[in-house]
Hints:
139 residues, alpha+beta, 6-stranded antiparallel sheet, two-stranded parallel ribbon, 28% strand
Amino acid sequence: MSGIAPDWPAAYVGLSYSATGEGPEAFHCWALVRHVQREVFGIELPQVPASGGYIEHAQAFAGSAERARWSEIAAPVDGDVALMGRTRTPTHVGVWASADGGGVLHCLDPVGVVFYTRARLALEHWRIAGFYRFVGGVA
């Protein structure tokens, strides 16, 4: 992406996790994606209402009109969203960044915001289920 500093993820690494918070210092995974999309890429994303844990959030997004505003893509670029999981069911999201050969910026309970390269994702047993690009439209 033109005009985006290659080391943009560094500004977020180390920020805190919060099950209910949405920045500027504490996030859950979707809140981090929303914040990065707005602050770095100029894209305003809605909150996806859900209560409970990761599975409830994933189910809420799967049934949300917001899902239609995204296209699955094969080769990610900075800002694309990575849908991830540690089981067959993806329950987590992060933002792809090309820094350090490519990886995902995401927020973990209780660790906070981390940037994991593909190798680190594999070591931590994260599987990328797909990459998605925001295409807009009416939600």
